[in-house]
Amino acid sequence: MPSPLDRRTFLALLAAGTVSGAAWSGLADVIAPVADGAAVASTGASGRDDGVVRLGRRYLHDHPEESDAAQLRSLLPGLDATQPVRPQLPALAPASVGDFEAGRVVFVDGWHLAVTEARASAAVALGA
Amino acid sequence: MQLDARKVRAGSTLSADVCVIGAGAARITVSRALAAKGRQVLLLESGGFTPDRATQSLYKSTSVGLPIDPNVDLGLDTPRLRFFGGTTNHWAGYCRPFPALDLAARSWVPRSGWPLTRAELDPYYAGAHDVIKLGPYDYSIASWIEQGHLTQPFLEDDVMPHALIQVAGHPVLGATYRDEIVASDRIRLVLWSNVTRLALDESGGAIDHVDVKTLSGNSFHARAPQFVLATGGLEVPRVLLTSNDRRPAGIGNEHDQVGRSFMEHVNIAVGPVPLTLPASVLAPYDVKPITVDVNGQPRDISLQTVALIAPDIVEREGLRACEITLEYAFTPDDSRLPKIYPTVKRGIDLLTAQGKTVTTVPTARILCEQEPNPASRVTITRAKDPLGMPRVQLDWRLTRDDRLSMLTTLRVFGARLGARDAGRFRLDIAGYHDSDPADGDDVKFAVNTGSHHIGTARMSTDPADGVVDADCKVHSVANLYIGGSAVFPTSGANPPTLTIVALALRLADHLDAIR
Q1: Contact check, Cβ <8 Å, A3/B426
Q2: Best residue in B313, B407, B424, B445 to probe A by mutation, most A CBs within 10 Å?
Q3: pTM to 2 decimal places
Q4: Domain count for chain B
Q5: More confident site: B46 or B399
């Protein structure tokens, strides 16, 4: 099957700053770490060493417009709204696979992630 | 027969049917092939049979463009070896023929297109397998799986087809063929002989002789009806540009092409790949030694598969050729892993939180083609070596599209990993690890190249766009031929030596046919 990624998508990602292709030195924009708590409005998960929280914080740093926990939850398909997000992460796996198939991907801290799992990590970081 | 240039009578002239300059993969191959056809060959080798510091220092060069191996400071002289056998003396033996697409003119790769097809090269690739002592000329992964030598690469699908690499068990061609060449009554191997000038004849249209000097101070000439210059992608332009007494721009440089379009293979370990599949899925990506029978003779080779991007995606996305492999796998609890990839735990945690178990963490490595860019070039400087030869200066450059191509390729790779629910990938250029974890080594450097010097005397149909024609003859010189990867119009993403040897066999056929 053909790749879901086309040049237009890629250039859109470039424009959004999720990928820097201008030079290898630009890769620092993709992989540079973010200090704990940076650009995060609140965090219910302490998890200094929790990779999910760290990735979530980085996503929020890159996408501050998505820093509302309720809004983030609404973007995650099939979640039980009465339960925390973290235990429900396995249920999001099919959606993430679908994201990868469709090219809905994002670099977070250098990790090549599905948009769904990146948002789910952000929700966890926000304590949702 | 073996001679010592230091003992050749000063001012004399050695003669043969063909004068071959250098003694690496191309020149050993063309010399043996010509000798087998009954031709008398003069093989001029700068060094001896073992490394010599003073001779090696003749390679000393400067780099003003992109740094090559900056963190280990290899410079430009270390990847090349100036003694009998040339750079094959430290060649790892990796072989893969050019795919047909990478030889073709591709609208999305400027100045691409060889004046040769894969079909024309195939018989010579088969012959090169005998020279290098590889397995059968069979690059079908399915075929090797059927024979029980490989397992199915887990990433292979319509988006990421895979290619096979054969690795020579005994890749040091100097060692393999030294005795044969020394014993040959048709090859005169002249050790310690450095060619410092190509001298044109009275007409100015052909080479009459070459000037040879030794570091001991001796000098003499070599004369032949045909000359083959095969000294590597940096030294070929050096000799051509230095030979400027009759043609001020240098020999073969009427269109300012000599030294231009220098290409390297960008060869980078790009980051960790936590996998949730059994570690055994990595087997086809590892180098697996086997012994195969070729015409009744056992040959030691190894097999490895590499992932590619499907041709339709390559064309649609405008990608350069690139191969991806997985190497140096760690278990996720290996204490060395976070030292190499400090943030690898984040990806492992994410997968674990999704209910998956990370079993192994290999590193993804890419080896990529760059476009032939005239601004990426070799020139000669005012600084001279002890023989009076100008030193080489390299200005290596990549274009923005070269970099975009690498990133797009990695995005396709990352997307396929995720789509197959096999794991995740982190782009971690700074965390490059180039040593086997079994050795306990630490991080060494961040960027690497293939140490492949390509394209400085490129092959072209139009003399205005290259230095040699499809027969590897310098467009503007009747009897001067170039061997080696200097003539490659594009680099592909495959190791070059198999093609170097194939072209050398083809050149020998041509030289014999036109005598």
Answers
A1: no
A2: B407
A3: 0.89
A4: 1
A5: B46
